[in-house]
């Protein structure tokens, strides 16, 4: 099951990059997806994949809300924080985590540290003291 999710993720990325749903591009995308080497890691649990996809679904309305909030009340302060990567994440799940963080307008992942941390840039409202 996890292998199918990895193939689906790779194919989705291919279609997002090419923005072409012609028959030739679909055939090329499937070929590229199947020819890319597999990473020799332990397979992630199905519940981790489902949770990650749920986080993507939740991030869509959150992104709209944050975009409206920034337009109505501009944010002028910035902060760089370190967030811990959830334990035992496969490269595909790490990609989805980074995608969810970066998808919202107020946050972007600056760097993924191999020792298990994301460096996240956040835009926050200025707090007057």
What would the keywords be for this entry?
alpha+beta; Ribosomal Protein S8, Chain: A, domain 1; 3-stranded antiparallel sheet; globular; Na+/H+ antiporter subunit E; transmembrane; transmembrane helix
Describe the structure concisely:
With 129 residues, the protein is an alpha+beta fold. The chain is built from four helices and three strands. InterPro entries: Cation_antiport_E.
Number of domains: 2
What is the H/E string?
HHHEHEE
Number of strands: 3
Fraction of residues in helices?
40-55%
- Mass-distribution shape: globular
Class based on secondary structure composition and strand pairing: alpha+beta
Residue-averaged pLDDT = 84
Distance between the termini: 53 Å
Q: Which regions contain 5 or more consecutive residues with pLDDT less than 50?
A: none
Question: Radius of gyration from the CA trace?
Answer: 17 Å
Number of helices: 4
- According to CATH, what is the topology of the largest domain? Ribosomal Protein S8, Chain: A, domain 1
Strand content: 15-25%
Strand order of the largest sheet: 1-3-2
Named CATH architecture of the largest domain: 2-Layer Sandwich
**Major beta-sheet overview:** 3 strands, antiparallel
| Top CATH class of the largest domain | Alpha Beta
Keywords: Membrane, Transmembrane, Transmembrane helix
Transmembrane segments: 12-36
Protein name: Na+/H+ antiporter subunit E
Pfam family, one: MNHE
